[in-house]
Amino acid sequence: MNTHPYLRAFLAGLFIPTLIMPLLLAAFLVLRVMVEAPIPIERGLVFPMALVPTVWGLWSVLWLRTHPQTHIPLGMHGAILPFLLLPAGTAIAKLAGVISLGASSVLWFQAVHIPYAFIACGFAAGVAIYYLVWKYIVGFLNRVLGIA
Predict the structure, then answer these.
(1) Which residues touch 81 (CB under 8 Å, ≥6 apart)?
(2) Distances (CA, A) of 45 to 3, 21, 89
(3) CA contacts within 13 A on the Cβ side of 106
(4) How many domains does the chain have?
(5) Which residues of 89-115 are buried (b: 16+ CB within 10 A; e: fewer)?
(6) pLDDT(1) > 50
(7) How confident is the model at residue 146 (pLDDT cuts 50, 70, 90)?
(8) Would you call 49 exposed, middle or buried from its count of C-beta atoms within 10 A (0-12, 13-18, 19+)?
(9) CB contact set of 139 (below 8 Å; sequence gap of 6+)
(10) If we measure between CA atoms, which residue out of 75, 58, 77, 66 comes closest to residue 17?
């Protein structure tokens, strides 16, 4: 009997971002309507909503496939993902005209300046969050689905 471990790994990785991304979009849309911000935030969220869950699912499949050879813990494997997502997201946002890179800050939607120091702190926090989410939540889902 074929138990389809890669499909189950894909679904385990897909679970968290599929729950969180629509909630983030709803929160940003409510803020935009209530605050009436002229920034088209939803334009910058639609593509990540499609891309991030798929990347998480594929990343989970990659862990399942390579774990017997690499023995990298799941949390550490998940913490590597932001190092791929940030440059890819930056490149896509730059090509889409969502951000402009300056000498000391990023200009977001031609309206908001975000200093690189703030981005670095957010990135470090993101890596820690990814580690914890992958270690505890995706790891739990892997155990429930019988692939860990």
Answers:
(1) 55, 56, 59, 130, 134
(2) 35, 9, 11
(3) 15
(4) 1
(5) beeebeeeebbeeeeebbebbeeeeee
(6) no
(7) confident
(8) middle
(9) 74, 75, 148
(10) 58
Q: What is the pLDDT of residues 101-131, one digit of tens each?
A: 989 999 887 878 899 999 999 999 999 999 9
Structure tokens at 44: 């910058």
Q: Which residue has the higher pLDDT, 74 or 29?
A: 74
Mean pLDDT of 61-67: 94
- Residue-number span of the structural domain to which 111 is assigned: 5-144
pTM for this predicted structure = 0.85
Would you state the structure tokens that stand for residue 108, as one six-digit string? Answer: 């977001």
Three-class SS of the chain: CCCCHHHHHHHHHHHHHHHHHHHHHHHHHHHHHHHCCCCCHHHHHHHHHHHHHHHHHHHHHHHHHHHHHHCCCHHHHHHHHHHHHHHHHHHHHHHHCCEEECCCEEEECCCEEEEHHHHHHHHHHHHHHHHHHHHHHHHHHHHHCCCC
Encoded tokens for 70: 């690499």
Do 103 and 30 touch, CB atoms closer than 8 A? Answer: no
